[in-house]
Amino acid sequence: MSSPRPTDEARSVREIVELLNQLGSHMHAMGTRFAARESLHATDVQALSALAMAGGHLGAGELARSLELSSGATTRLIDRLERVGHVERSTDPHDRRRRVVAITPSAQSTAGEFFGSLAVTLERVLAPYSLKEREVLRRFLAEVVAAMEEHHRG
Hints:
This protein has helices spanning 8-37, 42-53, 60-67, 71-83, 105-126, 131-153; strands at 57-58, 87-92, 95-103. The chain is mostly helical.
């Protein structure tokens, strides 16, 4: 007796999940290559990414929570990134009483040089899609990110 064939719907879901896994693997590999090129730890790259996504600066506690690191490990990470000129400690532009960790322009430039070609490639991939189709893709990816965050918290 042969096993039943998966439905088109089940196959479609499986293929999308597999493609998302491949995308995650490729993104991880790019981060690893960037870390190696810049003599950084993988966590350093995650920190720079977290800072960039947060608008360029975060409090040390926010960065620690984002990376799921202890305060001691976060301090060592910030010290390491500060020594190589990728971050600086500064006053929060919105609250002068608070100190933040800010990504430096040189670190942004270095990352931009490395990841910029990927952005151009992705823009080229998205070009043939209509605005409506891109909105579906954006909504899908936002929901995937939210689901992953919820899964992680659960």
